[in-house]
Design goal:
elongated, 166 residues, alpha+beta, Thiol Ester Dehydrase, Chain A
């Protein structure tokens, strides 16, 4: 089966699933994210403070984990026009420096917007290397539909009008 993120809206099937590659969270990732965002909370940046916290050590920012999840999902720019909504994000477990995360997802609702686009809602689970869910979210994307007059996923559309040179 081909990567569902390269397929047109109308060829997607509700309930299809996907699994991404993994990515290990590093010290550099956490420090860079803090510097970029200004979020220097001691849970992420202060080893002594974090050692006394409920998590026992420094952890990655939840928003860093969500951002990396978006980067792990292979959104083809020829099909996925934009992310429209991220909702119901729940941070279930901390992600520690050195953890490796990946995304497992399932296609949910598909709704046409117009002749060229539709929305696709997917349920995402971000898991660590131990198979524990660290984050879950519902992500809605604007997806390109196949133009009725062009080739679709390598097959000629029989409904497309024939072009005859003048």
């Amino acid at each position: 089966m081909s990567n569902l993120f390269t397929r047109n809206f109308d060829s997607l099937v509700d309930g299809e699933s996907f699994v991404t590659r993994g990515r290990t969270i590093t010290e550099t990732d956490v420090v860079s994210f803090a510097t970029l965002t200004g979020d220097f909370h001691p849970q992420h940046m202060d080893a002594a403070w974090a050692g006394e916290s409920r998590f026992g050590n420094r952890i990655a920012h939840g928003m860093l984990v969500l951002s990396y999840a978006v980067g792990l999902v292979p959104l083809d720019p020829d099909r996925v026009v934009a992310l429209r909504r991220v909702r119901d994000v729940v941070f279930k477990q901390p992600v520690h420096i050195g953890d490796t995360i990946h995304v497992e997802g399932r296609l949910g609702r598909r709704e046409p917007i117009d002749e060229e686009h539709g929305t696709v809602t997917t349920a995402w689970k971000v898991l660590n290397q131990r198979g524990r869910t660290v984050l879950r979210a519902e992500v809605e994307a604007i997806w390109r539909r196949a133009p009725a007059t062009q080739e679709t996923d390598g097959e000629v559309n029989p409904a497309a009008p024939e072009v005859v040179p003048l």
